[in-house]
Amino acid sequence: MKPTSGPEEARRPASDIRVFASNCSMHGVGHIFGPGSLSLRRGMWAAAVVLSVVTFLYQVAGRVRYYREYHHQTALDERESHQLVFPAVTLCNINALRRSRLTPNDLHWAGAALLGLDPAEHSTFLRALGRPPAPPGFMPSPTFDMAQLYDRAGHSLDDMLLDCRFRGEPCGPENFTMVFTRMGKCYTFNSGTDGAELLTTIRGGIGNGLDLMLDVQQEEYLPVWKDDDETPFEVGIKVQIHSQEEPPIIDQLGLGVSPGFQTFISCQQQQVPSRVPPHPLQAHTNSNPKPSAPQTCPWASSQMTSHILAESLLNPVPPQLSFLPPPWGDCSSVSLNPNYEPEPSDPLGSPSSSPPYSLMGCRLVCETRYVARKCGCRMMYMPGGAPVCNPQQYKDCAHPAIDAMLHKDGCACPNPCASTRYAKELSMVRMPSRSAARFLSRKLNRSEAYIAENVLALEVFFEALNYETVEQKKAYEMSELLGDIGGQMGLFIGASLLTILEILDYLCEVFQDKVLGYFWNRRPSQRHSSTNLLQEGLGSHRTQVPQLSLGPRPPTPPCAVTKTLSASHRTCYLVTRL
């Protein structure tokens, strides 16, 4: 506040506009309400101040409107790292059921649903499989479990896996986790389930990742009986490379690997290793049988293993593939519960104790809810506590419902706020060569023709230990909004935050002086007026007493004296009594 300038101004109350104008730090106000009469100069200053205030408010409204639009910007960067967490690798044989493991009871229950067989065709189909027909008096089982069928008749990794190495060290079926998908019984390497440490790699290139040799077992493929949407005509393995937080959707996102070829899959990660090893998405495996072997590493006693597992705890870096939640973006981090049926206005449901949110997990939960609501059951690979559909429900309801949902894309799943993606490049060469065919034949104890039709090699590795960071940031923060408002305030009206406090202080002075002062001044004046009127009425009454005669007094109306002096009934009553 500026000091007062003169005795006249000092005598004025603080609520006087001229006192406020002469002391306010806002530019131009002192020229408008200064001493003197109205003049052209004062009018020009008033117009300039009003124009500046209007311009300032217009600019502030534009900045606030821009802030409420919640713009964001995306930053893309590429960095290097000394080590990266190796992704989860899921493998599925394109053939879901082995012909040698099917029984007449399986055909009775699941023949129509899975193979499109009529009951009269069971014997013919069994002969096509090289199996004897059902014996006379055959009685099917009273119940049937689809998950047990796929677990028993699906391809076994013990039979398919011919060779396994990770970073040059041997591995085996015990390093894979069995998982059910829509393709049947599949296996995931480096899934991180049951608290297992996630494997890492410290170098890029061939030989520093996962190296597999697999047998697709064409002799176990089911014969093509009818042409429908579920009939596979190809042979080989489907592979999906994904993060440990996401469930495998291998029927839609898997890469095909063909026998007779060595396939190289080069990956680039779009997320740095997390500060804590990510929790695996176990919701889709809750109803699955446990793996037949413990999830341990065969090289667990070697020094190389200790080095590999220790690397997963070194160099923690926070995840950088991040997106903004509403209102700046459309990402979500709310876990979904497959047993919870949301309201129509809440398509994503409510928070639950489910694993971390992922796009594929959201789609899987959405499909589960849809099938459970429409069919009253779930498919064997779906999470949740609903009962598994029987074969007839598979055929009549579950499969058509899933196909219809995929065609119309009925799941509204936003991007996760933090996720891991892998860019992949695929190349392949023929194998084996003529010079290596005989050697492999002796090593694998298979014929050269069998190896050419059934054996494939697969290598999954990082192209380099660099990663891409994709991060969404708020384009306009609250601090920037306040800074812009302050800059506009200083530019147009020469004010600051303290000027606002001065205005508020002046308004408080006005309220105290004009409003509260009016009521406080009115009460003493009323009391003083009543006292004076009472004294005047009493004085008049005394002066009239000596003039009274002994004769009859003419009637005097009550309170005749005080009616002309006061309107107060209380004063009238007191004077009359006296």
UniProtKB/TrEMBL annotation:
<dbReference type="InterPro" id="IPR001873">
    <property type="entry name" value="ENaC"/>
</dbReference>
<keyword id="KW-0915">Sodium</keyword>
<dbReference type="GO" id="GO:0005886">
    <property type="term" value="C:plasma membrane"/>
</dbReference>
<keyword id="KW-0472">Membrane</keyword>
<comment type="similarity">
    <text>Belongs to the amiloride-sensitive sodium channel (TC 1.A.6) family.</text>
</comment>
<keyword id="KW-1133">Transmembrane helix</keyword>
<protein>
    <submittedName>
        <fullName>Acid-sensing ion channel 3 isoform X1</fullName>
    </submittedName>
</protein>
<dbReference type="GO" id="GO:0160128">
    <property type="term" value="F:pH-gated monoatomic ion channel activity"/>
</dbReference>
<dbReference type="Pfam" id="PF00858">
    <property type="entry name" value="ASC"/>
</dbReference>
<keyword id="KW-0739">Sodium transport</keyword>
<keyword id="KW-0813">Transport</keyword>
<feature type="region of interest" description="Disordered">
    <location>
        <begin position="272"/>
        <end position="299"/>
    </location>
</feature>
<keyword id="KW-0894">Sodium channel</keyword>
<dbReference type="GO" id="GO:0015280">
    <property type="term" value="F:ligand-gated sodium channel activity"/>
</dbReference>
<keyword id="KW-0406">Ion transport</keyword>
<feature type="compositionally biased region" description="Polar residues">
    <location>
        <begin position="283"/>
        <end position="299"/>
    </location>
</feature>
<keyword id="KW-0407">Ion channel</keyword>
<dbReference type="InterPro" id="IPR020903">
    <property type="entry name" value="ENaC_CS"/>
</dbReference>
<keyword id="KW-0325">Glycoprotein</keyword>
<keyword id="KW-0812">Transmembrane</keyword>
